[in-house]
Design goal:
With about 130 residues, the protein is mainly alpha-helical. Helix content is about 40%, strand content about 5%. The protein is built from 5 helices and 2 strands. The chain has a two-stranded parallel ribbon with strand order 1-2. Strand 1, helix 2 and strand 2 form a beta-alpha-beta unit. It starts with 14 loop residues before the first helix and ends in a 7-residue tail after the last helix. The mean pLDDT is about 90.
Amino acid sequence: KSRYLLGGKAMSKTAAAVNKVMCEALSGQPHLSVTPDRGKEFSKHAQLKKELKRVTFYFPAPHHPWERGTNENTNGLLREFFPKGKDITDTPEDYIQRKYHELNLRPRKCLGYKTPYEVYFSKVLHLA
């Protein structure tokens, strides 16, 4: 609901590598559900569900991107920094985290022009 971004760089696009990053990012964070796209890197979601406890995975129907609008919008925002087809193998993890932080401080119309940070942490920032 807050659109707050958490994540990191997986060593490969395998389900095991993606699970590891998701588990590290979500451990200790309040989370109720995850709505991934239908990529094969999410095929071991049951294992992640066991590790995170009480998280529900929602998989929309194939070829229905409108059922996961936040996911699609976030992918578009991330493409500003990481264009499709660009190899990020040599991109440092701290650079990726800085870009997540930038997006978390960007006001969103859908949040009443609050930032994801403000909504997630229930704090008011004075960005102007």
